[in-house]
Amino acid sequence: MVRLETRGPEIGICNLCGANARLTEDHIPPKGVPLVGQAYLERLTDTLGVERNRRSGRIFQRGVKYRSICAKCNNELLGQAYDPTLIRFCKEVHSSLSDRVYISADIRVQQNRLFRSVVGHLLAHGVGQHRMGPFPSQKNDYFLDDSAIFPSDLRLYCWAYPYKAQVVARGLASIFDFRFKSEPFVFSILKFFPVAWLCSTADLPAHASGQVTRVDHLSTVDINDYATISLNPSNIPHPRWPEAPGKNGAVFHNDHGTVARPIHT
User: Fold this and answer.
1) Count of domains for the chain
2) Which tens digits make up the pLDDT trace of 159-204?
3) pTM to 2 decimals?
4) Disulfide: which of 101, 187, 192, 197 matches 29 by Cβ 3.0-4.6 Å?
5) Measured between alpha carbons, how far is 264 from 261 in angstroms, rounded to an integer?
């Protein structure tokens, strides 16, 4: 068992709306997403023909939760308005994996609620982070305005993630491969079974984007609109991508830390 540590003041500035209020813990993953055992995941990754998630030498903070958002944002916005869509999306992805027909799954979803759930949980990570980090105002304004389109200077990607480890990080920078000339790529990630998300300040480099699906272009002004997201479970990134570098790359972590811990069933 991993003993959870809660960080953050009982009263402070909400990471999402900026109110000075009593702060609550963000639930990652939201209650209701599919929880599966390690044996099931090992069978799944073997059937998919992808790499199992093995232990490595890099050490992350483990079992950390943040008291960082007010009760209104946590309960009314994330809990009631947006997380139910993320939960349904995860259940449909899980169902498509369980069918053992590993072709692209086309999932119809209320994308504007889904994207705000993801952005909200990314913004909730860390203590005292209201409007801090890469393009913070655009993310906060988007989350709080249910008629806004996803910020044009940000990108959102997702992919099937058949692994047990949960990873949350914001404000990382990566050089995926030194053999390609490019500026450091700045991004935040939210990863838990069965879907992972990456929000970035630029397009993923062509040599690093072949296994993920870009979805931000599906954003519209009507919070109740639907769109179809296609995920290919037979072509997914390495389990530690993108928070751990490959042999030809580097990843730079900030002092807010990356949190990675197992999901207990």
Assistant:
1) 1
2) 999 988 899 998 888 887 777 767 778 899 999 999 999 999 899 8
3) 0.86
4) 192
5) 9
